TrEMBL record:
This protein's name: Kalirin
Gene3D superfamilies documented for this protein: 1.20.58.60
Entry keyword annotation includes Kinase: no
Organism: Geodia barretti (Barrett's horny sponge)
Sorted UniProt keywords: Guanine-nucleotide releasing factor
InterPro entries, per database record: RhoGEF_Guanine_NuclExch_SF (IPR051336), Spectrin/alpha-actinin (IPR018159), Spectrin_repeat (IPR002017)
Secretion signal span: none
Record carries keyword Secreted: no
Entry's Gene Ontology cellular component terms: cytoplasm; extrinsic component of membrane
């Protein structure tokens, strides 16, 4: 009888451990899904904000510089989110590596989150380049317009040689 009780105790302990491990994995999955969904929502919302609020390249050098600075402020605000997204991806990878029962779901979720972040990062980089080029364009435009009077006067006075001969 004692040996039977010991056997049952070992079996119950094993079942308890298995169920506890499964419950831990369920909690981990729910937490991962919640965090991943939050990050995806943040990316979508911020990408929409980027599309809505950061499109004007300006109509002068000063407005282009103001828009560029506003965009740099926007970049500063979102820079901290990268660490949070990386954390969620790392947690997902760690859980997949631990042979989590939902590793297929986590792999798909991680890939989707990583792809969305990379796409968003490319959009931010492209937008940054657009603002940089806008400032350069408006600077050149301003310099060009400053010289129009000088060039016009030189052409009128005959100081510029004719291309016809």
């Amino acid at each position: 009888m004692c040996s039977c009780l010991l056997s049952m105790q070992v079996q119950l302990q094993r079942m308890w451990d298995e169920k506890g491990a499964k419950l831990d994995q369920v909690v981990q999955l729910r937490k991962y899904e919640h965090d991943s969904a939050q990050m995806m929502q943040w990316i979508e919302t911020t990408a929409q904000s980027l599309s809505d609020d950061h499109t004007d390249i300006g109509d002068s050098l000063s407005s282009a510089e103001i828009n560029k600075q506003a965009f740099h402020n926007f970049q500063s605000q979102i820079s901290g989110q990268y660490q949070e997204i990386s954390r969620v991806i790392t947690v997902g990878e760690r859980l997949v590596g631990s042979r989590h029962y939902a590793l297929d779901v986590m792999q798909v979720g991680n890939k989707k989150l990583r792809t969305s972040w990379e796409r968003f990062s490319r959009i931010v980089e492209d937008r940054n380049n657009m603002f940089e080029l806008s400032v350069v364009f408006h600077d050149w435009q301003q310099k060009f317009f400053l010289h129009i009077d000088v060039w016009s006067e030189a052409c009128s006075s005959g100081l510029v040689p004719s291309s016809t001969g």
